[in-house]
Structure to design on (304 residues):
């Protein structure tokens, strides 16, 4: 397999669409990179590949190597800053246009997933995150079969399961946890996404979608609860425009004061032209400290 140089494989799963799996995958990847680990992201959401857009590299082209593909480099390792390398692979890089539909039956999806696992040449990689589509469909079954059959013992570290707090979401995500049980995939923990809203105009963080449903579900299944992630419009601005996040004075998220220091925000023209790496801008996002804790827990669970 082309995964020979990958140390740990982590799946990002959910039985529900629209819960933010790609957002969680992106921030886990950035946080792991900030922790000094070399990271790969494999996007197997074949009908809705959003990872290229999340990292702002939609125009990148995949390089064909003898017998397979080379993943796209988001950034190289920076040892002086303690930042690990980050590379990604997605079907989105192979489509002529971003809006092109992928209308495939199950067998072709299964073949594509198998090809992604065997024909993408990852270099030395500490963590490979696999972003999956919602549900327990062909892609999931193909992933589980291929990884359980061909991965080295212990190489498939487990899965991070993503939900939102509402009961209608957790009811579907419980099916994903049952899927992990039936396929012998270890659950590293549950992330409760969209729990709260960080207002861009004031210092409030409001629970607009309730709170606590993900933690209750995790306790019911006896798995680790990794944490709650609020909605932060500044993260969306960072992804869509590349602008560094800024917050009004007094903004507190998860007990952390994330206010932008006075005079630290740059003029708009200068900020748009700011060429610093996404991973460095992300450090100013209110979600970075939360994902720092979640990442530490995931690493701890993997190493146990």
């Amino acid at each position: 397999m082309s995964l020979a140089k990958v140390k740990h494989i982590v799946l990002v799963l959910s039985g529900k669409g629209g819960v933010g799996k790609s957002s969680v995958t992106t921030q886990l990847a950035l946080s792991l990179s900030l922790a000094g680990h070399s990271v790969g992201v494999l996007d197997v959401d074949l009908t809705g590949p959003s990872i290229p857009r999340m990292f702002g590299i939609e125009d990148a082209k995949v390089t064909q190597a003898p017998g397979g593909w080379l993943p796209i480099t988001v950034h190289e390792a920076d040892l002086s800053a303690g930042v690990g390398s980050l590379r990604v692979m997605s079907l989105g890089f192979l489509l002529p246009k971003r809006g092109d539909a992928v209308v495939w039956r199950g067998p072709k999806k299964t073949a594509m997933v198998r090809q992604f696992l065997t024909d993408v040449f990852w270099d030395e990689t500490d963590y490979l995150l696999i972003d999956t589509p919602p549900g327990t469909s062909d892609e999931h079954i193909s992933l589980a079969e291929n990884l359980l059959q061909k991965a080295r013992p212990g190489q498939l570290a487990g899965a991070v399961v993503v939900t939102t707090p509402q009961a209608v979401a957790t009811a579907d995500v419980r099916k994903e946890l049952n899927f992990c049980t039936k396929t012998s995939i270890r659950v590293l923990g549950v992330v409760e996404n969209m729990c709260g809203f960080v207002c861009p105009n004031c210092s409030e963080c409001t629970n607009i979608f309730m709170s606590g449903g993900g933690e209750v579900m995790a306790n019911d299944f006896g798995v680790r609860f990794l944490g709650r992630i609020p909605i932060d419009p500044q993260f969306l601005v960072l992804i869509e425009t590349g602008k560094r996040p800024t917050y009004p004075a007094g903004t507190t998220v998860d007990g952390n004061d994330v206010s932008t220091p006075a005079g630290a925000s740059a003029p708009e023209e200068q900020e748009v032209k700011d060429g610093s790496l996404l991973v460095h801008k992300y450090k100013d996002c209110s979600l970075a400290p939360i994902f720092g804790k979640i990442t530490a827990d995931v690493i701890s669970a993997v190493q146990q």
Notes: The two ends are 25 Å apart (CA to CA). The first helix runs from residue 21 to 34.
